[in-house]
Protein: Carbohydrate sulfotransferase
Amino acid sequence: YPWRHTPETQLSEFNLTEIEAMLGSYTKVLFVRDPFQRLISTFMQGMGSSPSFSSFVQDVLDSGQHSTSVAWKPLVSLCHPCLIQYDYVVMFGFLRQELGHLLQRAGLPVDSFLPEFTDTQVRWTYSWLSEQMFRELSLQQKKQLSHFYRWDLAAFPFSRSFLSD
Structure:
């Protein structure tokens, strides 16, 4: 459907027949990241106007599903993994290995296409930072966040997520 496709075209702008045809012809790759790490990253990048991480989390919880920010919206509400059968799900922290495998499966030379990724090196930093930020939250905020991201935690294997507990 190239006559209707532009970089700004949303999938929802197509009818069901067109959507099924497009999704059947593409290799679908979903990149996922632990929701708590997404919150930390958003806060660290200054995308929230809150002075502390705890108040930022409270703003996120208060805005809930009605928020327009994709930075902290649950992934399942953005990517619909129950409706779209993704060919690959790539986890943050394993980009180099997983993209190498993906390129190899596509028959492309692996080393010439992959840039240097820092996600593997920052895993330890995020683990430490997650622990510090998690301590800042009240028990109620922790429970609310776990509930807010419950479908992400159920859909993806974030085994070390602080929100899984």
